[in-house]
Amino acid sequence: MTAHPPGRHDASVFIRACRGEDHEHVPVWFMRQAGRALPEYRAVREQHAFEEVVHTPELAAEVTLQPVRRYGVDAAILFSDIVTPVQALGIGVEIKPGVGPVVERPLRSEGDLARLRPLEAEEDLGFVLDTVSILVDQLDVPLIGFAGAPFTLASYLVEGGPSKSYTRTKAMMFSQEPLWHDLMRRLSDITLASLRAQVGRGASAVQLFDSWAGALAPADYARYVLPHSRRILEGLADLGVPRIHFGVNTGELLGAMADAGADVVGVDWRVPLEQARRRIPDGVAFQGNLEPAVALAPWELVEERVRDVLDRAGGRVDHVFNLGHGVLPETDPDVLARVVDLVHREGRVDTTAPSVATDGG
Ligand code: CP3
């Protein structure tokens, strides 16, 4: 394998935008860019179960590369899942197609927490780290590593599967606060160990997915979640890679998610981007936020909405174009390829627009 010095993608448009540094065009990648929207992904899945893909570095690397080849996106995101690290600890988690992660014996009591032992990344997640190594060897664009944030992980582990109301999770949070913080600390340690190891193998940036944190009011987020997410983000600071912090329905939490120690805050499609920008402090970049279902519409509408996102981003150098959440499986890949071209053609960076680079934060 070739030597990969840390920071070798520092000159890429993606890393420069994350840092608010000048670059030639707005970078773009898509959450869930690998996956069922791609016929080449479905072809792999016809031969191999999802878990098998995740656990086989050559397969996981291949499906990570598929969208990079097809779309020409400015970053790759590791193919794995947010529950993979806890699954590696022997918590019985199964990813059911069309459903999501399902936990055989949910974590609900103090005794259950003992099952969440510390993660030894090299031993427990060797297959993920080997995938990272293959990818940094093969990619010409930065690789984004990722992990689930403790609230979102807890929501699966406590509920036992996907939920709309997070009732049991919130009940534990409000009525058993010491147990809750113990759970969050254990999950934070696991997430931090996983992210540090991914960067250690050459990931150029990380995204912390707190997909379901938007279920919380700001005061509850601040009390029960933020200190833990902050410990993760601050625990990555010395590595010097951009830290992206993302959740859905987080309009009221954007400032807090930046405050937790993010370099980039992900914005879903519900918040007009110029308003999101006002909630994110200067010095912190932003990512988003095309409504994923717009990609299902006729091209004229897609084009109009892509331009609208770019307009609202105002040509700032610290904008990373993305969807507001993951690619929907029903999406026509050709539409996403055209979105990438359009963003590259028209996503001009205005170096006079306010940004971390030009106004000193
Ligand atoms: O391209 C990428 O973004 C990288 C791959 C990736 C997957 N999961 C692959 C996957 C990433 C970053 C994730 C993270 C993830 N997993 C999150 C956070 C991101 C988000 O969407 O908010 C969450 C909440 C999960 C949990 C999870 N895993 C769900 C809800 C599902 C979907 C279940 C379904 O079938 O609808 C999964 C499974 C999963 N993870 C698939 C993929 C491509 C589908 C598996 C398949 O059937 O092939």
Question: How would you characterize this protein structure?
Answer:
With 361 residues, this protein is of the alpha/beta class. It has one domain (6-346): TIM Barrel (Alpha-Beta Barrel), CATH 3.20.20. The protein contains 16 helices and 9 strands. It has a 7-stranded parallel sheet with strand order 1-4-5-6-7-8-9. Strands 2-3 form a two-stranded antiparallel ribbon. Helix 15 (299-313) links the parallel strand 8 (285-290) and strand 9 (319-323). Helix 4 runs parallel beside helix 8 and helix 10 (167-175) packs across helix 11 (177-200). The chain is globular. It binds coproporphyrinogen III. Coproporphyrinogen III binds next to strand 3.
Keywords:
two-stranded antiparallel ribbon; disordered C terminus; TIM Barrel; seven-stranded parallel beta sheet; binds coproporphyrinogen III; alpha/beta; 361 residues; 45% helix
SSE inventory with pairings:
Elements: H1 13-18, H2 39-47, H3 50-55, H4 57-71, E1 76-77, H5 84-88, E2 93-96, E3 100-103, H6 110-113, H7 121-124, H8 126-138, E4 143-148, H9 150-159, H10 167-175, H11 177-200, E5 205-209, H12 218-234, E6 243-246, H13 254-259, E7 264-266, H14 273-279, E8 285-290, H15 299-313, E9 319-323, H16 333-346
Helix pairs in contact: 4-8, 9-11, 10-11, 11-12, 15-16
The protein binds coproporphyrinogen III.
The largest pleated sheet is described as:
7 strands, parallel
Helix content: 40-55%
Bound molecule kinds, no repeats: coproporphyrinogen III
Tell me the span between the first and last alpha carbons. Answer: 39 Å
Q: Quickly give the structural class.
A: alpha/beta
Which architecture per CATH? Alpha-Beta Barrel
- Strand order, sheet with most strands: 1-4-5-6-7-8-9
State the name of the first-level CATH class: Alpha Beta
Rg computed from alpha carbons, rounded to a whole number of angstroms: 19 Å
> What is the H-and-E element order?
HHHHEHEEHHHEHHHEHEHEHEHEH
Overall body shape: globular
- Tally of separate domains: 1
Q: Give unreliable regions as ranges.
A: 356-361
Which fold name corresponds to the CATH topology?
TIM Barrel
Number of helices: 16
| Beta-strand content | 5-15%
Structure summary, number of beta strands: 9
Question: Could you report the average pLDDT, rounded to the nearest whole number?
Answer: 96
